[in-house]
Amino acid sequence: MTEPKNLILVGAGNMGSHHARVISQSTGANLKFLVDPRESVGRAVAEKFGAVWAPELPDLAGIDGVVVAAATEAHYPLAMQVLNQDTPLLIEKPVADSLLRTREIIDLAAHKDLPLMCGLLERYNPAVLTARSFMQEPLHITGVRHSPYAPRIKTGVAWDLLVHDVDLAINLAGAEPSGVEARLGFFHPESEHNAEDVAETTLNFPGGTIAQVSASRIGQRKIRTLSIYEIDRLIEVDLLRRDVTVYHHVSENSVDGEGRGYRQQTVIEIPELVTSQEPLTAQFERFLAVIDGTYDAATERATILPPHEVIDKVVAERTALRT
C-alpha cells in the first residue's frame, strides 16, 4: 500500500471548500496546507479540514501535488510556480486567463513530463460514465446548460458553463472539432460589458458528427441535459439527477386512423449506473492515479487543450459583436 500523498490546496472559496472536503476525506492524501490570502476565510476552512493556513504558496519540498481553485487571474503565476518546482498540478477551469498562457502551462508540464489535470468535472458524472459505457456511434449530440442569473460570476457563460458540454462533446465524438460556429447574447443589465449571458455553439467533427451546445444564465431554473443520438436510439442524460434513459422508436400512427391525434410506440430502457461516486471524488482519485503513474500523464494532458481552443473561438465572437 502506497503512502498517502501530501497535498496543498490553493483557494478557500466555494469550489475550494469542496476540494478541501474531498482531499481531507481521501485515504490516499493528506491536506497539509490551505492557501488563501484572506486569513479569516482561509484559516476557517483550513481548521475545519485539519490543514495549516498559509497566505501564499509555501515551499513545495515534500509536497506530492497541488490543487488550484483560486480566481482565474491567479492561475497562470500559480501554475508556473508549481510546475517549475516539479510538482503535479490539478487546476480548475480555465487553466489560465488566455489561450496563450494555457498553452504555456501545458507545454511546461509536457516538457517536464509532469501530471497536469484540469477540473472539467462533468467527465466524472456517473450518468456520463454510464452512457459512455454502452454508447456506440454518436451522430448528433446536444447539450443544454441553463441557469438562473448569479451576480457573483463575473465571466461570461462560455467559460463558466459552456466549456463543460464542449468538453463532453469532444470526448463523446472521440475527436477534435473541425469547425466551430458560435452566437452570443448580451442581455442582463448586471452583467459586465463583455460578458455574454447566452452562448449557442455548433461543433462539426471530421467523422460527420454534429454537436450543438447551449449555455445560458437568463433561465429561471437549472437545466443540465445531454442527448446522444445514434442511428437507432436516443440516450438522454440528466446531469443534475445523474440518470440515463434510452429510447428506441418502434412505430407511429394516428390515433383514429384519420390523422386526428398521434400515437407512438417507444421502448424505454433505464440502465443501472456504473458508479455512484461523487464526481469531485472521482476526479481527485484520477489525480492521485496520475501522480502514482497508474494513469498516463501524457494522455491526461492531451485532453486539456481542445475544449480551451473551442471556447477561445467562441469568446472571439465578443469582439465582433461588441465593437
Shape: globular
Provide the β-strand percentage band.
25-35%
Helix content: 25-40%
Say which CATH homologous superfamily of the largest domain is assigned: Dihydrodipicolinate Reductase, domain 2
Structural class: alpha/beta
Cα-to-Cα separation, first versus last residue: 59 Å
Output the helix-strand order.
EHEHEEHEHEHEHEEEEEEEHHH
> Biggest sheet, in brief?
8 strands, mixed
pLDDT < 50 runs, ≥5 residues: none
**Number of continuous helical runs:** 9
- CATH topology of the largest domain: the name is Dihydrodipicolinate Reductase, domain 2
Average pLDDT: 94
At CATH's second level, what is the architecture of the largest domain? 2-Layer Sandwich
Strand order of the largest sheet: 8-9-10-7-11-12-13-14
Radius of gyration: 21 Å
CATH class of the largest domain: Alpha Beta
Per DSSP E runs of 2 or more residues, the count of β-strands stands at 14
